[in-house]
From TrEMBL:
Name by which UniProt lists this protein: Glutamate synthase [NADPH] large chain
Pathway terms, separated by semicolons: Amino-acid biosynthesis
Molecular functions per Gene Ontology: 3 iron, 4 sulfur cluster binding; glutamate synthase (NADPH) activity; metal ion binding
Domain annotation Glutamate synthase alpha subunit C-terminal: ranges: 87-272
Entry's EC annotation: 1.4.1.13
Source domain of life: Bacteria
CDD domains referenced in this protein's UniProt entry, alphabetically: gltB_C
Cofactor: [3Fe-4S] cluster; FAD; FMN
InterPro entries to which the protein is assigned, alphabetical: Aldolase_TIM, Glu_synth_asu_C, Glu_synth_asu_C_sf, Glutamate_Synthase
Pfam families, A to Z: GXGXG
Gene3D superfamilies: Aldolase class I, Glutamate synthase, alpha subunit, C-terminal domain
């Protein structure tokens, strides 16, 4: 640093004129690479700093979560049930994250002992319900942006269009891309379609939606995704765990599937029970006409349902099942 004329790291920030571009690289990928736009120095205005010298105010005291935390005081201090309702707009981002932090301070990973139910009306911003704690149920009447349910940690998320809206939910995208990224547990019921990369890296959440875009269930490692509608291309790419059910009414799902790591398996009795439970909740929470139609014609609907199962995950489950049965047999014989 001294040789370059700097006393501190802060003095070095932005001084790209001190960088030398190597001229001995012959690799075809790099030899014609022009770095001058990257190294160009934009002269700073006199009132601007080259590095962060001014403390920023993100107005965190005014975010929606402050109101949520205030509403949750009976739950946080006395373990009581809470019901509340708030309007929401798309600049209300990460709603519920600060609330879940406060819950974790009191109840650790156990979540609330009594339910906290919050109804929102409007258009939810990015990362709605991120890391939402167990015991909290968020219901949105309206629509939502990207990263819905990111890191979901036991909470429940519900979404359906505004009752005054004329849109047909199952034909319209009501929530954005990358829903349930890294979710570990919890449930969600979405009346309408989602964007791309639905359930990417989901590792434990159980969710229902009525159609998704490209790359659905990408790198999914656990949980359950029930898709009552069409999917985009490259479905299940890198999917190593969990299970997905797709209502393939058009009969073209195999053309959209990435089969590298998954198989299409038959629907078994335990699948039927799981689907019956989840779709009944979907109807209860969202009023979904699509789910109601499925339930009203259950046998015919099941016939066109596709079960997507990762091969290695299936092998692990079968091994565990065999070991459990063997242990049970040995226990009976011992008696």
């Amino acid at each position: 640093m001294a040789e370059l004329g700097f006393r501190t790291i802060d003095e070095m920030v932005g001084q790209s004129q001190k960088l030398k571009i190597r001229d001995d690289i012959a690799h075809w990928k790099y030899k014609n690479l022009d770095l001058s736009p990257v190294l160009h120095i934009q002269p700073a205005r006199e009132e601007d700093g080259v590095y962060n010298q001014t403390e920023q105010n993100h107005n965190l005291e005014e975010v929606l979560d402050r109101k949520l935390i205030q509403a949750a005081i009976p739950a946080l201090e006395k373990g009581e049930a809470v019901n509340a309702e708030f309007p929401i707009i798309n600049t209300d981002r990460s709603a519920g994250t600060m609330l879940s932090n406060e819950i974790s301070k009191v109840y650790k990973d156990q979540g609330l002992p009594q339910p906290m139910n919050v109804k929102f009306n409007g258009s939810a911003g990015q990362s709605f319900g991120a890391f939402l704690a167990k015991g909290v149920k968020f219901e949105v009447e309206g629509d939502a942006n990207d990263y819905w349910g990111k890191g979901l940690s036991g909470g429940t998320l519900v979404l359906y269009p505004d009752a005054k809206s004329s849109i047909v939910a199952e034909d319209n995208i009501v929530v954005g891309n990358v829903c349930f990224y890294g979710a570990t547990s919890g449930e969600s019921y979405i009346r309408g379609m989602a964007g791309e990369r639905f359930c990417v890296r989901n590792s434990g959440a159980k969710v229902v939606v009525e159609g998704v875009g490209d790359h659905g269930c990408e790198y999914m490692t656990g949980g359950v995704a029930v898709i009552l509608g069409s999917t985009g291309r490259n479905f299940a790419a890198g999917m190593s765990g969990g299970v997905a059910y797709v209502w393939d009414k058009a009969g073209d799902f195999e053309t959209k599937l990435n089969p590298e790591l998954v198989d299409l398996d038959p629907i078994e009795q335990e699948d039927r029970e799981l689907l019956l439970d989840m779709l009944t909740k979907h109807v209860k929470f969202t009023g979904s006409e699509v789910a109601q139609s499925f339930l009203d014609n259950f046998e015919a609907s099941i016939a066109s349902l596709v079960k997507v199962m990762p091969r290695d995950y299936k092998a692990v489950l079968l091994k565990r099942k065999a070991e459990a049965e063997q242990a049970q047999t040995e226990e009976v014989e011992a008696v």
